[in-house]
Write the structure tokens for this entry.
Amino acid sequence: MRAVRLHRYHEDPVVEEVPDPTVSGPFDVVVRIGGAGVCRTDLHIMEGQWAEAQDPTLPYTIGHENAGWVHEIGSAVTNVAVGDTVILHPQPSCGLCRACRYGNDMHCEDAFFPGLSDHDGGMADYLLTSARACVKLDPSTQPKDVAALADAGITAYHAVRKAIPLLPPGTTCVVLGAGGLGHIGIQCLAALTATRIVVVDANPDALELAKRLGADETVVADGSHVEAVLDLTGGGAHVVLDFVAEQGAENEAFAMTRPAGSCFVIGYGGTLQIPTLDVISTERNIIGNIVGTYNDLVELMALAEAGKVTLHTQTYALDDAVQALHDLDAGTVRGRAILVP
């Protein structure tokens, strides 16, 4: 089969032929990929930012946002059958550790993360995963239309789900970044809360999309946007969802948060530099967010199949994976890039 393989950090991956994955364990599932999302994390992987944390053996196949059709199953798999349409939670979990028992399966002690950890990902014709990762979908669902919900979607949804108690009617939520994650977060906010949604982005096209998806106000990130947000919100937002968190945006997000408000860090790559006095004197909260749970993905797919959350995508052939990565890095992808084998 074809696969997008990273051979060395700080270099482009290559599309090459590798053996097809096969079932070896009772709960194994092989999925024929119908859509694989291209994520900024893939760029960070190529830059070596995850090398120390995950220590994958190179070369390996990247891609952690995957959907497709069940191709082969292990002897103990009962929740899906060959031919089923599925979206895959990006982090298969054990189901037995304390974190899994609490429902926090994204913190599973024995989890692995295809395309990120030392396991081949889904930018390929086929992917080996586990039964616990599979969410069965309506057969009419096209995998390429939902693939990015597997990671970008549940990451955004997970943050919004955590913020809901802080966003009753009369509050304001600022969404920083209306790109691949942010455009999903805007829709989740509109579907699940009555908060006033203010979206900040440097790209006018992204702001136009944000308006169509439910933003009440938009602000161009032009250097004066922090002051503009403070004026618009009367001193800062109750909640800021920072989908950028690099190149200085992470500190701007905190500055946009009102006293006793909460700044949710969802993107990454930057460094927060906040005097501790500013934290304690204003009682502002900084909340970290990682990929959501299996149940988050099930709930998000219910919203998606009801038409309340849709992905805005650009599709590329699998053989054009490097171009898709370059376009993402250059900021020319609106919404989410999807590879279709």
Summary: The chain has two domains: 2-151+310-340, 154-288. The first helix runs from residue 40 to 46. The first strand starts at residue 2 and ends at 6.
